[in-house]
Design goal:
This protein is mainly beta and 109 residues long. The protein contains 1 helix and 9 strands; from the N terminus they run αβββββββββ. Strands 1, 2, 3, 4, 5, 6, 7, 8 and 9 form a 9-stranded mixed beta sheet that branches. The longest helix has 6 residues.
Length: 109
């Protein structure tokens, strides 16, 4: 079992790609961005990053994002300055999610 697999087994969001110097598998050049992944057990709750821009994608299962609503496989939500929110994985399926955290607008690309 690799590093990422062992971290995902803890049912929390794990930084996979980061420009902030986090303990992520991949370092990226955008210093204000982090890609988080999570494999969440049924009914588990995680706190989403409090970021200026947030993109939440459900790769498998379903989850409810506080203040946004239900997201199912293939659904995504883009949030701007939403503040601290929680995400609750569905019962009985759980959820696999990708979350992009960005703290400044990209320009010139």
């Amino acid at each position: 079992m690799g590093w990422l697999e062992s971290q995902l087994d803890h049912g929390r969001l794990v930084p996979v790609a980061s420009g902030r110097g986090d303990h992520a598998a991949i370092s990226i050049r955008q210093k204000d961005a982090v890609l988080w992944v999570g494999r969440l057990d049924p009914d588990s709750v995680v706190h989403l990053p409090d970021a200026q821009f947030l993109h939440v994608y459900v790769a498998r299962g379903g989850a409810e994002v506080e203040g946004v609503g239900q997201l199912n496989t293939g659904d995504a939500a883009r949030l701007t300055a939403a503040g601290p929110l929680s995400l609750k994985a569905d019962s009985p399926t759980g959820a696999e999610v990708l979350v992009w955290e960005m703290n400044r607008e990209l320009s010139g690309y």
